[in-house]
Please model this.
Amino acid sequence: MLRHVPVMDLPFDGDCAQANGIDLPVIAINLALRTDKWRTLTQRLSAVGLTKLIRAPAIEGARLPASQVDALLRSPADATHSGPCSHLTLTPPAIGCFLSHLAIWRWMLGTGLPRLLVLEDDAMPVAQLSASRLHRILAEMPDEAGLVLLGCRVMAGLAERPQDTELARIYYFNGTHAYLITSTACTTLLQHLLPLHAHLDHQISKLLMEQRHDFPAYYAAPPLFDADWSFGSDLYTPEHTLSDGDAADRELDEIIATSRRTLLAEGRPLLSELNR
Model:
């Protein structure tokens, strides 16, 4: 199934020494027509010393052949071209976003990079982002940590509170606009996220629950990046709004509630449900 994921051939000379003194490759996903986002992103990252940025052209799901998309889906019912009836249902923009991340992970494995900072073009550094803090987070990454979210929304408190470090376990989240990933995690995710059947963050969260004893993910608190919605979303477009928001909310609430009961039964020290 991986052969149906588009291949990214990205220019990279191996030099990833950033102006802030951190030796870290940084890649950002950007739609070709969103030059405004790219311009703003590069300016913002340059201001925090991340001056060497690899641009990954975003995959446009609507432009992919139907046969290619069908080969990647678990079921045709998992995707729609009109208003989805679930928070999980994939739309063409969501499929393109999902595949853009998969393609980057394949590229990373092909180049032999041990770790990578992946950004979406709406990622916005927050005031707490500094070279020293990023250095500290890189140093504090547990040996088993292959995925560290540098900015996300914790769903219904389904994460643990950081203890003595700035990182803690996370189990369910929204947002893939900024994360650190290792080559080992890329391999694991590529093995488990196909076929596609939900939005990328929901599908990763499902994996974090199912594989919580073997594949831990972490989040940074406070975050280093936020998502800038002022440009408008390329993912949630008017024609792809929910057809039945109440039913969709009930479905997601049940998923969250079941996950929370499971984690609490195992004695995991979760955040308050109000801490989202």
